[in-house]
Design goal:
homodimer; 7-stranded antiparallel β-sheet; about 675 residues; 24 helices; 2 domains; alpha+beta; Thrombin, subunit H
Chain lengths: ~675, ~675
Amino acid sequence: MTWQACKALMLAMVAASGGVARADEGMWLLTSPPLETLKAKYNFVPTQDWLQHMQRSAVRVGMGGSGSIVSPDGLVMTNHHVGLGAIAKLSTKERDLLKNGFYAPTREAELKCPDTEIRMLWETQDVTDRVGGAVKPGMNAAEAGAARRKMISQIEKECQGDAGFRCQVVTLYQGAKYHLYRYKVFNDVRLVFSPEEVVGSFGGDTDNFEFPRHSLDMTFFRLYENGQPYKPEHYLRWSPSGAKEGETVFVFGHPGRTRRLYTVDHLKFLRDVDLPDRLARYWRTEVKLQGFAGRNAENARVAQPDMRSVSNGRKVYTGLLAGLQDPALMGAKVAEESELRSFIERDGQHAQEWMGAFEAIASAEQGYREFFEERATIDAAVAGSKLLGRAFEIVQLTEELPKPSNERLREYADPALPSLYVRLYSPEPISEALEIEKLTQALSLLAERLGGDHPLVVKALAGQSPRSRAEQCVRGAALADPAARKAMVEGGGAKSGSDPMIQLAAIFDPRSRELRKLYEDKVESVERDAYAKLAAARFARAGESVYPDATGTLRMSFGTVRGVDRDKVPAFSTIGGLFARQAERAGEAEFTLPARWMQAREALDLSTPYNFTADCDIIGGNSGSPTVNARGEVVGLIFDGNIYSLTGDVVYNGAEGRSISVDSRGMVEALRKVYGAGALADELTAR
Amino acid sequence: MTWQACKALMLAMVAASGGVARADEGMWLLTSPPLETLKAKYNFVPTQDWLQHMQRSAVRVGMGGSGSIVSPDGLVMTNHHVGLGAIAKLSTKERDLLKNGFYAPTREAELKCPDTEIRMLWETQDVTDRVGGAVKPGMNAAEAGAARRKMISQIEKECQGDAGFRCQVVTLYQGAKYHLYRYKVFNDVRLVFSPEEVVGSFGGDTDNFEFPRHSLDMTFFRLYENGQPYKPEHYLRWSPSGAKEGETVFVFGHPGRTRRLYTVDHLKFLRDVDLPDRLARYWRTEVKLQGFAGRNAENARVAQPDMRSVSNGRKVYTGLLAGLQDPALMGAKVAEESELRSFIERDGQHAQEWMGAFEAIASAEQGYREFFEERATIDAAVAGSKLLGRAFEIVQLTEELPKPSNERLREYADPALPSLYVRLYSPEPISEALEIEKLTQALSLLAERLGGDHPLVVKALAGQSPRSRAEQCVRGAALADPAARKAMVEGGGAKSGSDPMIQLAAIFDPRSRELRKLYEDKVESVERDAYAKLAAARFARAGESVYPDATGTLRMSFGTVRGVDRDKVPAFSTIGGLFARQAERAGEAEFTLPARWMQAREALDLSTPYNFTADCDIIGGNSGSPTVNARGEVVGLIFDGNIYSLTGDVVYNGAEGRSISVDSRGMVEALRKVYGAGALADELTAR
């Protein structure tokens, strides 16, 4: 059977199942796990204690990664690529931790990260009724949206409590349910171990999302509280034997976003507008960064985190767009939606209300086309340079802080401020050369997209070329100093007046707010309401077997350790395979192991499992999640999916989509025999 | 003085001079050289004999390169990167001439290129009156355009004569003048020498458009006629001493296109619509080709010519767009146009007619915005795959050939057919893997740009994903065989019916024709007429000192050998500098000399000049042009411009823009001491 034929069949099966989760599909809330499926398929019934243990062992790392606590002394396991930003911020031209790796054999040698925040989900509560109750009869969609946002801010603020905790209301099912999450937050996070980048991302962009794979994509941090290693109530034990082919495994992590419940019209917006626009920016940035990095070694070093991020994102969205452009996938989605529509019509009772929801979403997305490009361009430009992004936050903070908390833009409400300040005042080093490059790119992007005579472009360039203007703003940016940023915010913006970067940011603020309001009123609010209706229809049809789309919050996935039969790709790679892959691509930088690996080769057990695949349902944000067995013991560390999994944003592909983990045995073998990190290996494997 | 300040000053000077060529500006017709300037500045008066000698020594190589005849036995000198396509077509997995270079020590060893055509400009004639006379009173712009096109076809056909000649009417000054060019055409072209690609393009994308530079960007072909080396009446002698700093030099070549006479509104279309669209496609293609090439060595080999071409084009258009986004450059253009407008108003007599031309162009470009993206996307998709491009030509030929020659689309008129057939029936090897990749890219581009539900996209994909459809069309393409292509054309398309690639091409044909007609009627015809008026205004104001924009036809530039003072960059690099540059970028593939260079190092005179710069006015298409001294002797070989020259498409930058040549002395030194090609060096330097 060809790939196409097989895929078509698989998708037909997806369609036939009618939108109900099947096989090992699903990113489940820990508060409503798929008990029947687990019992029926795996004869496994998770207890409340087990779920609570996993909830407090799994953590969120930084803005978008996962991790887990793996020792009684607060050791946190995550991916090298999740820790990459933090490791880069600890690196200098002289001490290049990305290139050379790092190991702290003692607590004293551990390096404090400038701005890494790790969160543990402490407890959750359903606040759907309170949020829904804020909407009064007669409100239109925009008014209802504003009322909900205000209520959410209020709930978050009331919840706050102790300084070490943060509260967040999570929107589930695109608006059908709202849960309040309370996190314990750690800001004293120290680097314990990371391999060389070439080992962590062995094979680079070429092998990314491929299998067999040979990456030791791991990093260890340690949580500190009051200057001492944190002593957690819950942490994960190391499996003494590792995973076996056919074994049931679980993944606990923070999948970032899926859009599986989107209507077909909404998916078409993704396919025809959002993704082409996003990819065009990725391609542009990737080529420009390569040019910058190619100029000299120091440029290459400082651009490394951006380059990793952009090549990864480009591959993710390329896979997703390819899926959406495949008539088989879209056909399956159409069939699935037809069945839901039929159910709604058969149901009768809510037919008019629920069917109208499809139309409301289609119409909102149609309207969004009119200002999508302008909004995406301005957002991308502002986020394109670190200093401009910060200046923009300072400009907005200055405007927002005097307002009551629940009337502010949500990211500036009181509960959000501590985390915002950690990032905003981070003492991370900033490369002037890279900032000039990125701001030049951002300004020329504006001109390319909006046209050279657009008033915003004319104002932003102020009569100069993009590069000249970028040089002026970056070189003149007082806010490059964290203390100056703090003074600007605390002085209510008073001390920022003469900073050219602040002036530049202020140019974007009014139009950015207008476009945001337009989006919130005409798109988001309408869709919240419409998706809540469609979720009600799905619940009526399939009950608990509908899981919410991923929202960057804690979820459980499960599945079986297995390869891809059709491609005859086995479930495990080995350390021996790593050396073989290096030989196969001799001379290529991304496949060249450091000297310490070559020296350790004799000592290593080459048959040690190194990476493995399972059919767990994961997506970006799951990186760094622990893969555990039914006893909750660590058998692996999620770091990637295979190429077939890239359509996971919109549909789960159980036939060929695979999560990829670093094998717990490979991790320990490398720590002991390559890195002389026996103490760390002992800490992990102690029972 | 900062770069910005200096550039602003320079541009102000451009503006102040009011559109009259100054300093060493200009790509001059050999029929109207700037005699006064040459006399005044260089005390040099070219004779008719000298110009005729240069005209018949300079040749056009392939579709868009330059070259020159440099021996009595028909040796042609051009760039490695101009010969790249031909060299790649002579390469196989086993015999990789790009990687290893090539030298034929005997005539017998020379390799015949599958489809390289070299043209020598035999004679020219002004046919402005005949073309203009085709337009009858009362015709609207579209009718006038059609009448002119029909007359041009007729003139070309009448001119044809001997089989070894081709005629072409060239549109000068965007439509103010028409010249008939008659070329002698060579199709038996054989490869004599080319260096390894890494030597030809030393420093790759990083050093491209930079100086100091260290590229031996040369290749030698030989012209054959009736199976024997061609004995030319004219050929260039080698200078015994090479060029000196401060010396006057001349460049004879085929600059591809400039748009210096464009109105400001037309330039804004370039800045805001055309270039952003074009660059977005370059970025996309570059990233996708890198992914393809990264998969294995054979992919890398077959993708090499495309990758070179796309990274080069990307750099060219990036530089041009940066210039257009610089308010200083656009301000200078506005000032220049204001002066022309003032002149027109002062002149009075033609004021209404001439002033209306500005408005007509602005309005045509505004209208073009409405269908530009669709047209650019379809054109790019069709040209994106070699096999699809050929299928498209077969489809169009089938439709056009039955019509009378001067009623056909111009590229299918009788005079154009011989060259078209050489390309269309070329036996060059075609990589199935690369074709599938490129067609996949082309089909997904269509879907990205036009949307997945666009009728053309739905038809083109035929219910499959872009990749699956590409596999089907490429694997099923009978026309991959040159004999099958010939049979299809000669059978009037009758034998092409079941070829899936032909079916795919046929889907694009109708809409492509509609959009072309729309462009010709609403944009091109209007602008031809309007620019003819503006050219009349410029002539009235500045007489012969206005040269026409580049049109891919033979021109003469001139200038002085010099570096860039402001950057303290000298005019010459040396062979010693080549080794130093390698040491500086140790370990990078694009900076790693082959073993034979390392072995020859001792024997080489490291002080030999290797590359040099001059302020000659050149642009893409000039690649491969001879740089000659006032005696017409070869002192160098144009292969690039510096980064400042990249705005040359719209404005000449005499202050910092530089042409870059391989030095004639470096060429001979390398031939003798690195490549053991003494016989070739002797042939070049014989007096």
